[in-house]
Amino acid sequence: MLLTEDFYRRRSVTRIARELLGKGLFTKISGVTTGGTIVETEAYSWKEKGCHAYQNRKTARNEVMFGNGGLAYVYLCYGIHNLFNVVTNKIGTAEAVLIRALQPVEGTLEMMKRTGSTKDNRITSGPGKLTKALGIDRESNGNILQSEKLWIEDLGAVIRKNEILASPRIGIGYAGADALLPWRFTLKNNSWVSKTSY
DNA sequence: TAGAGGATTGAT
DNA sequence: TCAATCCTCTAC
Questions:
Q1: Residue A85 has pLDDT above 90, yes or no
Q2: Residue A172 confidence (pLDDT) above 70
Q3: Which of A1, A64, A81, A167 is most exposed by smallest CB count within 10 Å?
Q4: Within 7 A of a protein CB, which nucleotides of strand C?
């Protein structure tokens, strides 16, 4: 079952980030479906320094974050990687959830091909890697997440509170005290969660 | 309009 | 530990 606008347009971005765990992110390109279960997310809000839209700073890049919940926000990081976010909340409130890792469900062979990997392990364990595996690039920026090319669906998995781990977000040391917010959510003991040196 | 740096990754 | 790589944002 596809997630609808109501799911994305709620007020609490951290709650949506938690609830996205266990949901399925998929793309269909040239007739091939690829995707998997979301096992790691991070919440971002205009209220804190880690966010591109901190203090409602609106630029050409982050404009989509100010749009309605249920849109894709895709941007280039380090000149190399496309990072995929889900825009949440209502028009004018810049919040989003970064999808950081998936557990493959469908199209594993195609994802291996796209990432140039010969093994099927950890091909979607990281925000830059999963976009490459699913074929997501900036052309998807601003697209709705209920299309035939890109969507998130409820796979029926029930995630209990005690299966979710909250920790500080990755790679935003410049955000000062806000870098310590426990807004990174992972499934406990899931081997597909991204590896970090932190 | 130039210059610095980034919500990462994989190889050394 | 470090380079790849290019777009975005800020300052001048």
A1: yes
A2: yes
A3: A1
A4: 1, 4-10
**Residues in contact with A34: Cβ distance below 8 Å, sequence separation at least 6, in sequence order:** A26, A27, A28, A106, A107, A108, A110, A111, A114, A133, A134, A135
The full DSSP string for A86-115 is EE-SSTT--EEEEEEEEEEEE-HHHHHHHH
Question: What's phi and psi for A53, nearest 5 deg?
Answer: -105, 30
Nucleotide nearest A83, CA–C1', reads B7
Which nucleotide, over all strands, has the C1' atom closest to the CA of A125?
B9
Identify the sign of the CA torsion A160, A123, A63, A42: positive
pLDDT, one tens digit per residue, over A176-195 is: 999 999 999 999 999 999 98
pLDDT at A11: 98
Q: Locate A98 and state its tokens.
A: 């970064």
Position A197 pLDDT exceeds 70 = no
Strand B positions within 7 A of protein Cβ atoms: 5-10
